[in-house]
């Protein structure tokens, strides 16, 4: 692999900052005052998945947590801390689990090979596979099966959010948290809302 000159990113940054100031003279003054993001997004670390770019959002609009295969783990203090801050301090009421087709973490879990340390993380996805074995076994096409697993994983992570102490305490306080299950499709550039695809009522997700 050839070496990349990372200075080009710094050069781009200078041009971008100058352009932002030319259009909005107080742009950075407003940013430094604090953040009021509209939603918390739990996405995958895949370099091709850029929620802000795909969804057309500006700085400060999304509070984002990313990990391998957008997993919500009850032992992940990093995510739990992010969620608690989002819900309790930033007063965020919309949480998006944002998966994508062609996810390497999903495939690695499905292939069930030995990968080292990451196997401990992939165990979360293997639980999803076990819970939905009959559904997955009924799909013969490999690509369709993996796409289905991506969707099932997103929906399972929604359920994991519901089981977290942060979610339960928020509901007990009378706060209405809205959970959204989205999947990004590389082949079309479109984001699919699984609630609409599977006709899931808002009260369920």
What do these coordinates show?
Strands 2-1-3-4-5 form a five-stranded mixed β-sheet. Helix 5 packs across helix 6. Helices cover 49% and strands 15% of the residues. The termini are far apart. The longest helix is centred in the C-terminal third of the chain and has 21 residues. The model has no long low-confidence stretch (mean pLDDT 94). The protein is globular and about 60 Å long. It is of the alpha/beta class and 205 residues long. The chain contains ten helices and five strands. The protein has two domains: 34 residues, no CATH class; 163 residues, Carbonic anhydrase (Beta-carbonic Anhydrase, Chain A).
Short description:
The chain has 205 residues and is α/β, with parallel strands linked by helices.
Distance between the termini: 43 Å
Kindly estimate the percentage of residues that lie in beta strands according to DSSP: 15-25%
CATH class of the largest domain: Alpha Beta
Instruction: Compute the average pLDDT.
Output: 94
Largest sheet, strands/sense/barrel: 5 strands, mixed
CATH superfamily of the largest domain: Carbonic anhydrase
